[in-house]
Structure formats: structure tokens, C-alpha cells
Amino acid sequence: MSPTMHDVARLAGVSIKTVSNVVNDYPHIRESTRERVRAAIAELDYVPNKAARNLRSGRSGAISLVMPDLRNPYFAELADDVMRAAAEHGLTVLIEQLTGEREQELQTLHGLRQRAADGVIYSVLNLDLEDADQIDVPVPLVLLGDRIFHGPADHVTIQNAEGAKAATEHLLERGRRRLLALGAHEGEVLGSAGLRLHGYREALEAAGVPFDPDLVTHVGRWHRVDGAEAMREVVARGVTFDGVVAFNDSLALGAMRVLLDAGLRVPEDVAIIGFDDVDETRYSQPTLSTIDPGRAEIARRAVEVLVERMNGLASPPREIAAPFSVVARESTATG
Amino acid sequence: MSPTMHDVARLAGVSIKTVSNVVNDYPHIRESTRERVRAAIAELDYVPNKAARNLRSGRSGAISLVMPDLRNPYFAELADDVMRAAAEHGLTVLIEQLTGEREQELQTLHGLRQRAADGVIYSVLNLDLEDADQIDVPVPLVLLGDRIFHGPADHVTIQNAEGAKAATEHLLERGRRRLLALGAHEGEVLGSAGLRLHGYREALEAAGVPFDPDLVTHVGRWHRVDGAEAMREVVARGVTFDGVVAFNDSLALGAMRVLLDAGLRVPEDVAIIGFDDVDETRYSQPTLSTIDPGRAEIARRAVEVLVERMNGLASPPREIAAPFSVVARESTATG
DNA sequence: AGCTGCGTTTACAACGTTGTAGGTAAACGT
DNA sequence: ACGTTTACCTACAACGTTGTAAACGCAGCT
């Protein structure tokens, strides 16, 4: 059995509360006492019991990070960023994956109610408004990702529309006019897909390039296979285009593979730009231009805001937009 | 404040212990009582307090997964596998990353002593023997990855040497004779790099192909950049080879990029095989042959073994080797 | 000498749950 | 009819910590 505060107290010849005070850096302790207790702690190799501390203080020192899929490099990198940011506040991160199955999803959300975490960072992929009400957790909540109008909680958002617009402009500036929008979701308006499509259309409009519905390709998910499949279908259909605005990097990488297979050159015949700036875009062949959505900054701010709420800050929900930037690489280089 | 068992008990008109019994599916409860309690739980929306339960029972329902780096797709996928396996046992997973800094590493290991988790799965990348003693946690421990001779704990191992040998044989069978070993670590014997190099040499020897030290390339880490850099250096040196045994997929993908840039065709001029079977190998251009180290199986067994230990099983440490297989794709296809 | 205030330490009671031991009533065996 | 088992339920204590309130000794002041 591990030693407890009682053991330390007995060895140091003080009360158990004094040990507690030393452990928690209570200021008014005589230096000699503090040292005696420290010595006893070291001798017994005492470590405070988390469960007891949690029970008594009502805090667990952990936050939940709810996200769709760790296999998706974007989310894996985001998880890493969040964990690093959390560590700076002395917090542990519990990662919860949403597999997309309704049943499992509700169970996860219910699990959040078990007070296992002091706060929740919820990275939504496709959250429609009715679901937003479902997120009724008894702890502070920060949303991450797509913008929701008048969300019920703090929200650190990716600038989806603005980023996609910048991506599209990037191609337009390089003289491309027939731009494929890769990764739309049928009928979606508020999710990443809807917003990025919106940014794409805005850029076209601003440049006076007519919008062609034939150039919008719909996909199921945003994995590499989906990008590859969609591109295969487009090529088979005989649609002509000289640029691709992919709604994320995986789609872009999958599509690029198919383009190259089909004998098209990137960027000479088709320029292509992704979205997310995952690590891999730096190593693909050719390297992939993309939008850096400010992922590390997003994680940092999200944890910051969450910690503020956990410390009792009461103010109207804030919406924080992370800065994004265009990363130009080979896939959109000019001859 | 959340409702407690007391509130439920009062509402249902039973003792608090009876509520506890209902919650924990104790068999001897009258059906009518059980239903009354259930109704009260539903009405109050009662959820058991984890911290209290942990304190009383001494179990947290969580296990720690210690691993080097979530940005590395192999480990991200492994983490996902472990989380899924753990979920089947009703366990939560706390992911701890080792950044490679000595200071942080020791702090992490010390953190494990805080009894936050009921067990630890430790995925070692480069664990030398003196470090092995450091892992002195008060909970069951399962090691994952490289084989350590006479390790102090259960160990689910990747068949490093055997896998690398199979990879090498795969190339030899296709008539390749000048095989580059990509990813060795200077002087290492027991880690993944050492074992995979050993497997490579065994295969050569078995086939009667002389070993050429010039064909062994050393790298720092196993990221894509390292593979690219090493390959650039090899090409610049003018070494000739017709096959590459990369010690992991990232190295292979980085190296392949450089080969293609240098005007070499894969697999016609150079066949290349990786190790790990990360998702990406299915989408690279060309698709990458690799060794599937049985990652999902590793995760499943590791959790299984850990749960057994957590349930008090006392027996000598076991060593379990996961089955591996060669996955043949385009990068080693025969003309 | 007595009062006040400060720094330091302590006793005690919680936090919400579960294990133990025991108690009551009905069912059973003789 | 009487002990004995069985099914069901309960009281109480404990897990290891921290918040509260109070006590202690000692200085400085009247």
C-alpha cells in the first residue's frame, strides 16, 4: 500500500493538515517544519492520492478533448497541440473519439456528465444545430472548429470561409479559371464543407469568374480515399479544369494521386491547394500548397479560454477566430 | 450541485446502500425496489461520482498509454487501436507523450506514480536497459514494441527482426541484390533499428548475398525528413542499389520522394519496402509495400494482458509476439 | 499583568461512494 | 412449532484528502 498523509505526518511529528499545507504550498509554515515534512515525504516516497484529492476538492485536473478521429492526421496533430497547451496549465487530457455512430456518440456525451473532467473541448466536425443542444455538460465547454451562429459556449473557430476564399484566390492569382471545388457535402451550409464552399464561391464572384455547379464535387467523408474516388469520377466524366481547391489536405493528396495516375501534371496542367497544413503536405510529391488554419494557436487559445471558465469567469460566450495563412508550395507553383 | 446517492435514496425511500446495490447490479434486490430506485435515478438524472467511487474502490477505470509522439502516424494509429481495445473493457485511456527530453520524461514517469491510472501500457521507442529499471510504477505494466531480454514486465512485441527479414526476403525474391538498409541507428543493438538491421543481415546471409556496410544508412529519427535526407546523401555519394529496405514507412515515403525527384523509377529502377503499414502507404504514389506488424492485434493483446494483471493475475512476465505479414504493393511490384 | 494580533499549527468534519456486518421477515426443513 | 436458511435491506465505517474554525505561543502594546 502507498503511504498516506498520515504516515508522513507521523514520521515528521506534525499533524496531517500540516502535511497537506506543505504539499499545497501554504505560505505560513515555519521553515524548519516545512523541511521536516519534505524530508518525511522524500523518505516515504509519498505521492498524494489523486482520487481523494479529486473527491475533496471537486476538481480532477483533467479536461476532455472530444474529436472525431485520431487516425485523421489533422486531428492527431490537433490533439498533440491541445495536450501541449494543457500541460502548460498542469492539466491532463482525456481524448474521446466520436466514431460517427449515433449510439456511441450519445454515450460519449453522457460520459462527459460523469464529472471525470473539469472542462471539455469539443472539436466538432459536422455538428448541426439540434445536436448543439445535446451538449449539456455540467462543466465549462469550449467548441473548436466550425462556426455556429450564436453558439451556447465559447468557440475558437477556424476561418473556414475566409481560408477557402484565400485558397481560391491563390489559384485565381496564378491565372487558373476552371477551379474544381473538392469535398462539398450535399446541402450543408454551416459545417466546414458548407463554409469552405461559401468561401470558394465568394472568391470566384469577387474575381468575376462564373460559378459552374459541374465543378463542385461532393464526397462522403474527408479521407484520402474519398478525394481519390471523387477525382476518379470527375476525370471519368470528362470535366475540364486547371485548378483544384480541396477542402482538406487528405482529399487533396488522394486527388493528386489520381491526377498523376491519369497523366496530368501538377502544377503545370492542374494546380492544387489543400486545407489544414498537416505535416504530410511538406513531403508529398509534389509538395502541397495549403491553408494553415493556425492549429497550434487554436489549441492554445481553446485551453486558455477553458481554464478561464474553469476558474469561474462568467461572461457572454466569446467567439475567437484564429489567424490563418496561405502556404504556397510546389503544387501551385507558377511555371 | 449534482444529485448524490443520498438524494436518490430519499426520493426512492430506501437506504443509500440499496441505491449503490442497484447501480452495481447486485443480484438480491426485489424487482419493485429496483424499479423504484431506477425511476428516482432517472428523475434526478443521477450520475455516480467518479472521484468518490475511485477513492472508495481504489480503481480509476483508466489506463495510461505512454508513447513517444502522437504526430507520428504509427503511434496515432496505435493510440487509436489501444483506445478501442480499452473501450471494450470499459476503460479510459490517458495518453502521455514522451517528448524525448530527459527532464520531461522523468516527470512523466513520476506522474505515473500518482495512481491516476490502474495500469500502464508503455510503448517504448528507444529504451535502453538502464532506463528499464526507472519504470518503477505501483501498477501493472505492459511493455509494447521492441523486445527487451528478460524484461521485468509483460511484453507484447513487434517481430522486428523477423519482419525486417521478411521484408528483405521479399526484395531478394524479386531479384534485387543491392539492398539499401535505410534507418539504422549508430551502434544500436536492442532497439527497433538494431533488430531490424539484424533481420536485414540475416536475410542477406540466408540468401548468400554479401553484406556491404556502404549500403547501411544511419539516420537520427524516423521521420519523413530523415528518410529524404539520408536518401539524398546516398544518391549524392553515388552508391548503386536496386532495392531499399526502409525501417519504417515514414522513412520509406521520404526516401521515395527523393528517388523519384532524382529521376529513378519505383519499382523499375529501385524497389522499396517500408515497415508499419500506416494508412498512408495505401495512398502514396506508388503505393508502398510494407510490413504489417499486427498493430491492432498488439493493442488488443496488450490491453487483455494488462486487464489480467489488474485483476490480480500473478505469474512470471510473459512475452507475446504479434503475428506480422508482408503487404505487397506497387513499390515492389515485378515488371 | 492583560489584551490584541499575528504566525503557525491542529482537531474535526466533510466530499460521495462501497465493504462489512448485521438485522428482519419470509421460506424451508425436521 | 422451532431452528435454519434465504432473500432483501440497512447502519456504520472507511477510503485520503482539504476547508473551517479554533487553538496555541509569542510579540508588542497598553
TrEMBL record, chains A, B:
<dbReference type="GO" id="GO:0000976">
    <property type="term" value="F:transcription cis-regulatory region binding"/>
</dbReference>
<dbReference type="InterPro" id="IPR000843">
    <property type="entry name" value="HTH_LacI"/>
</dbReference>
<keyword id="KW-0804">Transcription</keyword>
<dbReference type="Pfam" id="PF00356">
    <property type="entry name" value="LacI"/>
</dbReference>
<dbReference type="InterPro" id="IPR010982">
    <property type="entry name" value="Lambda_DNA-bd_dom_sf"/>
</dbReference>
<keyword id="KW-0238">DNA-binding</keyword>
<dbReference type="GO" id="GO:0003700">
    <property type="term" value="F:DNA-binding transcription factor activity"/>
</dbReference>
<feature type="domain" description="HTH lacI-type">
    <location>
        <begin position="3"/>
        <end position="57"/>
    </location>
</feature>
<dbReference type="InterPro" id="IPR046335">
    <property type="entry name" value="LacI/GalR-like_sensor"/>
</dbReference>
<dbReference type="InterPro" id="IPR028082">
    <property type="entry name" value="Peripla_BP_I"/>
</dbReference>
<dbReference type="Pfam" id="PF13377">
    <property type="entry name" value="Peripla_BP_3"/>
</dbReference>
<keyword id="KW-0805">Transcription regulation</keyword>
<protein>
    <submittedName>
        <fullName>LacI family transcriptional regulator</fullName>
    </submittedName>
</protein>
